[in-house]
Each structure stands twice: as C-alpha cells, then as structure tokens.
C-alpha cells in the first residue's frame, strides 16, 4: 500500500506534485550525481542519519496496479510504446569495427544496483576503453572546483536570496524541511534552488551511504577499468551538467524545490519505484508509472515540463551520442550513462542507430 504521506499528498498537494515528481524522475542522472558531489566535496551529511546497507521504501507500482488498474494499464501502454524502453545493456556494431557496448546505470549506492551483472562484466572485460558521463566523479577535488569555479551556476550573484524570492508560506515550508535535514536556511539562502534540491532529493540513507564512502556503479566500473590499465573517458564536464540545471527558469526551480520538500517521507517510495523498475530493465516505465501514481494536474504544467525535458534529457542525449561516436569508431568501447538517457526516439540507442550503427539489446 502507498505510504500515508503519499495518500496525503494525493489529497492536498495540487498540481505542483506531478511537476516536482517528473522533475525528480527525469533529472535523476544529474540529481544523483549532484548528491554525490555534495557529500564528497563538502562533507554534507543528514542529521541523525545512520548508514544502512539499503534504503527503506516501497515501490508504488504494485499498489497502483491493485488500486488504480486503469491508470496502471495506461502507464504500461505508454511505456510499451516507447522505443528501446526495455533493457540495460546494448551491443553496438558496424562492419570493420570491434563491437562496443552501451550500459544504463542508476547512480545509487544500494547493494541491489551496485553489483555488476554477469553479462555486463563480460562486456566490460572484452572492451578496451570505458566511457562514463563525467570523469569528474573520480576526483573529489575536481568536483569541488567545478562547483566553486563558476559561482554563477550555484549561487545568486545579483543579490537575490531565497527569502526574497519565496512568499512567507513557501519560505516556512523550506525552512522546516531544511531544519529536518540538519541544514540551516541561512547557510543556503544564496544558493540556486536546483542546488538545494540536490541536498534534499535523496533519502537520508543514500546520503549517509555516500558520506560513508559507498560508491555508485559508475565509479565501481571506472575503478575496475583503471585497475586493469584501461583508459576512462567522459562524455560531459560536471559544469555542463550543472549548467543544464541552472538554465531552467527560476520559478520552475523554486516550485520544484518546495514541492520536493513537501514530498518529504515520500521520497524513499519514489526511489524504490525507480530502483525496482531499473532492476527489471523497464526504464521506459519509470516516468509513466510515477506520473500515474500522482494526482491529476500534469496538463497544467505541460509547457514547463516540456522545457525541462528538452534541456535535461533531449539535448544531453544528443551531446552524449555525438561525443560517443568518435570513440565507438575506434572500436571496443564500453559506454555507461544514466539509464533514462537510453529510451525514446531521441534516446542514445536511437541516435546511435541514426549514426549508422546496429544497436541490439543484450538479454
């Protein structure tokens, strides 16, 4: 059954809930990397957090299927209609080249997702170079410099502060939510809303796991490649990922932040939903299932969300595919990117096919 928090949000959160939920889901590749940057570079840890091996939370899919069968069926239909929506590992081939591989990751530390599957390990072992989203993950000092070196990406430079931008009610909501996480509002009042969202968008257990030194799968793959003397390359710079988030309209950022704060105890269930679907390889189900689990109102924000999806997903898909092509042309590359970049008619798989490659799912 959904948590009581979820039931309450369904009743009183209004149309902002779907916007923030879809923001959280589709920005997963950036938000989770951001959380890693924050915990390593700035030693942020939640108040009273323990270090569990896995996080609590219940997937919303089963309860949706049982209690809202029509919405579940529609979400499943939407996912099934998405091109390349199932599968995590893909083989990339072209005549005259050694095959390469594309693998979708999820940037969490839970043991369920950090064990390298046998078929993924086999593909990694037979390739000569590893490519991840950004090599900045491997250097904590570089992480910190990426944030501090371009202050306009992370802080207001025009004198704005959150207490000037938010009304009294939303400011109170933000303060209470930050207090619960052991973060004083005064310390973050000049930070951009997207950056603060990175501090509050994950369950305490994930933040604590990262603080304790637990590594996400991307880093595990990179360490393994480095130990074998294989080059590790990146498709993006950290600042490019941060710039994508910072480029979103400030009102959209503020709404996303406040509604994420309101989600509070619901976040573990959202993460559990994403994790379960990821482990099943059903990447295209993540967005429609989460949307179906939310109350009505998404249409009111369709324009805002379309802009978000354009900047955070579609444009970056094209950048990743374009930068991957010259590496793939050399043959024998293993490319690991956030799984949400794989599906769709403008996902990385489809874009590589348009570039002349045969890309097939590895079961």
List keywords for this structure.
363 residues, 21 helices
Q: Quick gist of this model?
A:
With 363 residues, this protein is an alpha/beta fold.
Helix content percent band: 55-70%
Number of helices: 21
Number of strands: 6
Reading the helices and strands in chain order gives: HHHHHEEHHEHHHHHHHHEHHHHHEHE
- Detail the poorly predicted runs: 1-17, 40-53, 297-302
Mean pLDDT: 82
* Proportion of residues in β-strands: 5-15%
Rg: 20 Å
Structure overview:
- There is one protein chain.
- The protein is an alpha/beta fold.
- The chain has one domain (4-361).
- Helices cover 57% and strands 8% of the residues.
- It contains 21 helices and six strands.
- It has helices spanning 4-12, 16-26, 28-42, 61-67, 69-80, 111-114, 118-126, 140-148, 151-154, 162-165, 168-180, 185-188, 193-200, 204-211, 217-227, 238-246, 250-263, 267-279, 286-292, 302-329, 348-354, and strands spanning 89-93, 100-105, 129-132, 232-234, 333-338, 358-361.
- A six-stranded mixed sheet has the order 4-3-5-2-1-6, with helices on both faces.
- β1 and β2 (100-105) form a beta hairpin.
Layout: helices, strands, pairs:
Blueprint: H1 4-12, H2 16-26, H3 28-42, H4 61-67, H5 69-80, E1 89-93, E2 100-105, H6 111-114, H7 118-126, E3 129-132, H8 140-148, H9 151-154, H10 162-165, H11 168-180, H12 185-188, H13 193-200, H14 204-211, H15 217-227, E4 232-234, H16 238-246, H17 250-263, H18 267-279, H19 286-292, H20 302-329, E5 333-338, H21 348-354, E6 358-361
Parallel strand pairs: 2-5, 3-4, 3-5
Antiparallel strand pairs: 1-2, 1-6
Helix pairs in contact: 2-17, 2-19, 2-20, 3-8, 3-13, 3-14, 4-5, 5-19, 11-17, 13-17, 20-21
């Amino acid at each position: 059954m959904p948590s009581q928090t979820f039931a309450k949000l369904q009743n009183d959160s209004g149309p902002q809930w779907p916007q923030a939920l879809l923001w959280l889901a589709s920005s997963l590749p950036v938000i989770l990397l951001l959380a890693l940057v924050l915990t390593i570079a700035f030693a942020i840890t939640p108040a009273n957090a323990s270090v569990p091996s896995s996080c609590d939370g219940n997937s919303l899919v089963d309860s949706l299927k049982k209690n809202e069968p029509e919405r579940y069926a529609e979400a499943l239909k939407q996912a099934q209609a998405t091109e390349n929506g199932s599968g995590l590992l893909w083989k990339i081939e072209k005549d005259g080249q050694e095959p390469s591989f594309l693998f979708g990751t999820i940037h969490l530390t839970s043991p369920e997702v950090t064990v390298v599957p046998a078929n993924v390990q086999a593909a990694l072992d037979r390739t000569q170079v590893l490519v991840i989203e950004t090599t900045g993950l491997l250097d904590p000092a570089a992480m910190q410099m990426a944030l501090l070196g371009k202050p306009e990406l992370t802080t207001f430079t025009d004198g704005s502060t959150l207490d000037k931008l938010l009304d009294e009610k939303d400011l109170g909501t933000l303060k209470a939510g930050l207090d619960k996480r052991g973060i004083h509002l005064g310390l973050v009042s000049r930070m951009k809303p997207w950056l603060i969202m990175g501090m509050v968008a994950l369950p305490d257990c994930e933040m604590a796991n990262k603080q304790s030194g637990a590594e996400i799968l991307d880093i595990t793959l990179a360490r393994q490649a480095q130990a074998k003397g294989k080059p590790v390359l990146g498709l993006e710079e950290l600042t490019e990922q941060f710039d994508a988030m910072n480029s979103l309209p400030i009102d959209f950022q503020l709404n996303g932040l406040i509604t994420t704060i309101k989600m509070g105890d619901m976040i573990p269930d959202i993460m559990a939903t994403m994790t379960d679907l990821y482990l099943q390889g059903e990447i295209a189900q993540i967005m429609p299932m989460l949307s179906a689990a939310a109350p009505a109102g998404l249409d009111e924000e369709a324009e805002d969300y379309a802009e978000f999806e354009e900047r955070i997903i579609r444009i970056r898909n094209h950048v990743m595919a374009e930068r991957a092509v010259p590496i793939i042309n050399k043959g024998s590359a293993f490319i690991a990117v956030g799984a949400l970049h794989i599906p769709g008619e403008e996902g990385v798989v489809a874009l590589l096919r348009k570039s002349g490659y045969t890309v097939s799912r590895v079961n």
